[in-house]
């Protein structure tokens, strides 16, 4: 999990950021990206792809990463913008905002997936980066917990969809609620609900 960071620091880069997102697939809510700069040589064997962690473990690591990171940046793109520019462009925009919110700015970026960010910083995409890079895995945890917190707040406004449980994903219960109540303000109109 640390090889990418070690190799890149040996090339002279010091502030290395991992970038990942949460919320590309849901029917409702924003896409959230996080960028995380960890201290050089940082090791935490518990940090891994957020999808492989329980909610409680993610929340514990969210606090640890928050305490240990040099910098954390978030980018949130709401459902109306997703509908306007499409989910891929919204994801890349959220990533760009997350990196822009880092202080200090990174001198190298690892991005989960296959798409670069339109930002003038050296960068490398890593397929399954959240399983291969500690900084990307840390970003995946920050993005996931941050998005879950947003969806928990939306649950208070729209309890009939049970966002507290489904976080906006297209579960059977969620799809049935949409059939009964229609879509609410945070549903993605460009996403088909089967």
Would you write up a description of this structure?
The protein is built from 8 helices and 5 strands, in the order αββαβααββαααα. The chain has 194 residues and is α/β, with parallel strands linked by helices. The chain has one domain (3-148): 2-Layer Sandwich (Nucleotidyltransferase, domain 5), CATH 3.30.420.10. Strand 1 (16-22) and strand 2 form a beta hairpin. Helix 2 (55-68) crosses helix 6 (134-157). It is globular, with a radius of gyration of 17 Å.
Features:
194 residues, alpha/beta, Nucleotidyltransferase, domain 5
Low-pLDDT ranges: none
Q: Averaged pLDDT, please? A: 96
**Strand composition percent:** 15-25%
Cα shape: globular
Summarize the structure.
With 194 residues, the chain is α/β, with parallel strands linked by helices. It has a single domain, classed as 2-Layer Sandwich (Nucleotidyltransferase, domain 5), CATH 3.30.420.10. 44% of the residues lie in helices and 15% in strands.
């Amino acid at each position: 999990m640390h090889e990418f960071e070690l190799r890149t620091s040996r090339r002279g880069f010091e502030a290395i950021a991992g970038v990942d997102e949460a919320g590309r697939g849901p029917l409702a809510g924003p896409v959230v990206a996080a960028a995380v700069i960890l201290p050089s040589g940082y090791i935490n064997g518990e940090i891994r792809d957020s999808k492989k962690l329980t909610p409680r473990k993610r929340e514990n690591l969210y606090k640890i990463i928050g305490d240990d990171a040099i910098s954390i940046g978030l980018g949130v793109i709401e459902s109306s913008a997703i509908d306007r520019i499409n989910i891929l462009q919204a994801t890349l925009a959220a990533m760009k905002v997350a990196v822009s919110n880092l202080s200090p700015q990174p001198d190298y970026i690892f991005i989960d997936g296959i798409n670069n960010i339109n930002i003038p910083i050296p960068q490398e995409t890593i397929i399954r980066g959240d399983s291969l890079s500690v900084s990307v895995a840390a970003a995946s945890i920050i993005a996931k917990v941050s998005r879950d917190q947003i969806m928990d707040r939306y649950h208070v406004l729209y309890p009939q969809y049970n966002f507290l449980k489904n976080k906006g994903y297209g579960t059977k219960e969620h799809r049935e609620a949409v059939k009964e109540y229609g879509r609410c303000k945070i549903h993605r109109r460009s996403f088909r609900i089967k």
